[in-house]
Write a structure and sequence with these properties.
This protein is an alpha+beta fold. The protein has four helices and five strands. It is globular and about 55 Å long.
């Protein structure tokens, strides 16, 4: 993305804020042992490891959550923030990992299902000075919606609908 595109977008959304608002949604349905996920014209799958009843034929929901954070780090920094802040970026890499105890998913006493110690390491390849890259990183931490959703307590509404076969 170019700085001109970002600047044009800023001007448009300042003039017409409603054009920037959306309600992203992902739909999922079961297909055998996997879930098929859909967002707009995109479709992908997830599965569980075999010990948890899955077939391990697609990434787990945990891997998809971590991939959302890694992906947001890479594309948001490279395509949006770098041009906006005038930082030259040759490449961005991200590694996201966590600790998980699958016993918690099975309700085994003493184990929790929560993901623990989520850690993201971002590597930015650039000829620019360290302080420019530090600013880029700081702005990413202030604006990345995936990072913010994981670090700020969120209420998640839930609902259950029952259909009889």
């Amino acid at each position: 993305m170019s700085a001109t595109t970002i600047e044009d977008t800023v001007r448009l959304w300042q003039a017409e804020p409603d054009k920037a608002k959306g309600k992203p949604a992902v739909k999922a349905h079961s297909d055998g042992a996997q879930a098929v996920l859909e967002a707009g014209s995109f479709s992908w799958r997830c599965d569980l490891p075999q010990p948890l009843g899955g077939t391990n034929a697609a990434p787990s929901p945990t891997a998809l959550l971590l991939s959302a954070l890694a992906g947001c780090a890479v594309v948001f920094i490279r395509d949006t923030l770098a041009p906006q802040l005038g930082v030259r970026v040759d490449g961005v890499h991200a590694v996201v990992q966590c600790e998980a105890d699958s016993r918690g998913l099975l309700g085994i006493d003493g184990a929790v299902p929560d993901l623990q110690n989520i850690q993201v390491t971002i590597t930015v390849q650039t000829p620019d000075p360290d302080e420019h890259v530090q600013r880029l990183y700081q702005v990413w931490r202030e604006r990345c919606p995936i990072y913010l959703a994981l670090t700020n307590a969120q209420q998640v509404g839930t609902a259950l609908e029952i259909q009889r076969a």
